[in-house]
Design brief:
This protein is an alpha/beta fold. The chain is 33% helix and 21% strand. Helix 3 (84-99) packs across helix 6.
Length: 389
């Protein structure tokens, strides 16, 4: 029986992927095999030695100590693309909010009082302050062309916008999915200089923190709009406010309210709604539950942010899953220990990523516990599991 600890409410559609005859799932559970969460902060949370996997029902993993988990040989799974449609729709809404001054005009309409006749007169007198502009013909710059960025780019083209994209690490798969007339930018600065709207779909890293700063804001077209539904910190908020006050940029729409931003007349802040749809929550939960289950039961790794992709079909035998540091002679030492007790390797697959390697080995009979312990004690081995041994 596998034990799964949940740190947040996980959509039932995801939990239903974990059969009750093999999985015990609870928000309080001793010695869990895996943890499922959404936004809970794990950086200061004690993590039981029994934990073999962590699944984040969402894309970002800033709330998880990924480096510490890697050192322990624990994969951190996420759900890239599961919330892509939800975020895409919010970006489109953000462009319309900015272009048509919807938030400001709604606040104006709510502030009017008096008889209906007086309200109508005030509306006619005041609406000229909220004249906006239309999207067709405008240029959207998309920084980050992963699952979300590609959808945003294609949706903007369907609205009649021009699109410029920048992503030096775009995959062949994503490139094929892009509309053919999306124009590439050679750099962030190139994209900023060509765009009326700029949207970000990249993780927060040392390289992307304050990607948009005072210097880059000066490069942007006068009257451009910033949209950030990715991660707080990608834009230097203080610099953005200064650019708004000077008229360099027209509006700033983001998912991350703060005292600096929430009351500014040219800023629209939303309460981190990017993935807040029932459909996105279910998609994320299903994806991450399937990935954690596949790892616990078969050792396969898909969509882990710190482990290599690896998949070895089960065709028989008894499986061992070994996680180790990516150093020479690990396979030799492991296979030698197996051979020393007469175990025959039926199938084996090894993959590495950075400092971590994963090896899946199917042998003809169960490995004795003393052999498992000997492999576990090889210098550089982080974890050993018998799956069906």
């Amino acid at each position: 029986m596998y034990k799964i600890l949940t740190l947040n409410n996980i959509a039932l559609a995801g939990l239903d992927r974990l059969p009750r005859d093999r999985y015990e799932v609870a928000s309080e559970i001793a010695h869990p095999d895996a943890i499922l969460l959404r936004s809970a902060n794990m950086h200061d949370t004690p993590i039981a030695p029994s934990v073999r996997a962590i699944g984040r029902a969402g894309a970002g993993v800033n709330n998880i100590p990924v480096g510490r988990m890697t050192e322990l040989g624990v994969p951190v799974f996420n759900a890239p693309g599961a919330n892509a449609n939800a975020v895409k729709e919010l970006v489109l809404a953000g462009m319309l909010l900015a272009a048509r001054n919807i938030a400001q005009s709604w606040l104006f309409a709510r502030s009017i009082s008096g008889e209906d006749g007086a309200i109508n007169k005030a509306v006619e007198a005041g609406k000229k302050a909220f004249v906006g502009f239309e999207l067709p013909g405008r240029t959207l710059g998309v920084i980050g062309l992963g699952a979300i960025g590609v959808r945003v780019a294609n949706a903007a083209r369907a609205l009649g916008m021009k699109v410029v994209g920048y992503d030096p690490t775009i995959t062949v798969q994503r490139a094929w999915q892009l509309e053919s007339d999306v124009q590439p930018a050679v750099s962030v600065d190139d994209l900023l200089s060509r765009s009326d709207f700029v949207t970000f779909h990249v993780p927060l890293t040392d390289e992307t923190r304050h990607m948009i700063n005072a210097e880059r804001l000066r490069i942007m077209k006068k009257g451009a709009v910033l949209l950030n539904f990715a991660r707080h910190g990608i834009i230097d908020d203080a610099a953005a406010v200064s650019a708004l006050d000077s008229g360099q940029i027209y509006a700033y729409v983001c998912d991350f309210p703060s005292n600096l931003l929430k009351d500014h007349p040219r800023v629209v802040t939303l309460p981190h709604l990017g993935a807040s749809t029932a459909e996105a929550e279910e998609n994320c939960a299903v994806m991450v539950a399937d990935q954690v289950r596949d790892y616990l039961e078969d050792g396969n790794v898909h969509n882990a942010v710190n482990f290599p992709e690896i998949h070895l079909p089960r065709t028989g035998g008894y499986r061992m899953a070994v996680v180790n540091r990516n150093v020479p002679n690990m396979l030799g030492q492991i296979s030698t220990d197996l051979a020393s007790v007469g175990l025959n390797i039926l199938d084996m697959l090894n993959r590495s990523r950075g400092e971590v390697a994963v090896t899946l080995i199917d042998v003809d009979r169960p490995a004795p516990e003393e052999t498992v312990e000997r492999i576990r004690n090889i210098q550089g081995v982080l974890s050993v599991r018998c799956l069906g041994c």
